[in-house]
Amino acid sequence: MNNHETKRTACLAPLLSIAVQPQGRLRPCCWWWGTNKNELDHNIQSMSFTEYRNTVGKNLYKNMQQGVYPDSCKRCNTSAKPRYEYYNNLYPDYVGREFEDVPNLKHLDLRFGNLCNASCVTCNYTNSNYFGKVKEQGYWLAPGQVPSEEERVQLDRDMDWHNSPKAIKSIIDSLVDVDYIYTTGGEPTINPTLHKVMQHLIDIGRAPDITIEINTNGTNSNKKFLDLFKPFKKVILFSMDAHGELNDVMRFPTKFTQIEKNFFAFNKICTGDDLLMITPCITIHNFFALPNLLNWANKNKVPITAKLNILNAPHWQSIARLNRDQLDIGFENIKAIETVLTTRGNILPTRLFVEDMQARLSNKSVYPPFPKDKDNLIINWHMSMDYTRKWFESRGYDPKITNIPEFQ
To answer: First-to-last CA distance in the chain?
Structure first.
């Protein structure tokens, strides 16, 4: 435990929120970093949301009211206090409230296992069971993207929590006062449990009062899902990493032509204050080609997130592997686009993307200059190029489309 004097009031996460990891583990929020056995034993298949909140959540909140925060909050114990501020901004009327005065949850973070229909280069079997199919088809995979057969069996068992009647009941029972649901996977739009949750909220007439924030790979725009999604307030984080063929190979085996159509299908069900944006994850594979995606977005009036996701792991794909000259080339190309459209019709100078990337790369604890792989070998630029070439060529693509100078 540690004191955190900069937090004037208790964090609202254990009071209002529960997050479910892909393997069913329960946490107060997605930044929770608990590692001791007791914390690891909190699982949706053995403990209902109500039980977790009224025991674990209550104890945490009471301690936080005294200014005492567990080591598991270490990711948030910074000057920025990101999740602490997130909940305070989302629920200002609950700041400083007593636990006994708030009977129910308000916020759910549901990460529905690893059921997915894509095998993105930045991902692995833990987040997408589609990697099993890709391995069987003989495509090259980087070390660590698919576990051993024994580990896969255990993962498949753990990841299937969302099909448990007990787990589904726990979620449904918790929805009395919930007004915000964040969901990802796997790919949440193809997960039947999310469909059941949405249908329940529609049946009891609460859909218009609920915000569903969904992190999707954009592959599913079938009418059944869009009809389910339409009556809710919506925040749609639409994963699109590159334009054209580069997106196809990075997010294999999706096709940009279909993803593009799906984006506009999602756009048609958005109204009022709904938010829809593309959320590229920046890696060595799309860094030099990012202007192509930004130009496409500007041409089609597609909003892009105001804060890009800068990949830190797998380390071989991180732009932290680039040297200063390489980074400068990419940064100048991005700034040459000048502006992009973000949400709410706002215009963002692309120099702000660059300044944010530069600031984040300076954090060497997140973006280490000399990371090591599981065999204790330093991950260098040669390894990055070797893995990139193997990933692209085994899928029938020329790594030249990355615009990485070494491939030109």
So the answer is: 53
pLDDT at 39: 64
89: pLDDT strictly greater than 60: yes
SS3 236: strand
Of 105, 129, 160, the position where a domain reaches its end is 105
- Which residues, listed in sequence order, are joined to residue 18 by a DSSP beta bridge? 108
Structural domain span for residue 43: 2-105
Does a structural domain hold residue 368?
yes
Amino acid 2: pLDDT: 57
Q: Model pTM?
A: 0.94
Both tokens of 171, joined, read 């979620």
Secondary structure of residue 379 in the 3-state scheme: coil
Domain count, the chain: 2
Q: Among 105, 126, 153, identify where a domain stops.
A: 105
Q: In whole angstroms, what is the distance from residue 86 CA to residue 74 CA?
A: 16
- pLDDT tier at 200, thresholds 50, 70, 90: very high
Q: Are 398 and 392 in contact (CB under 8 A)?
A: yes
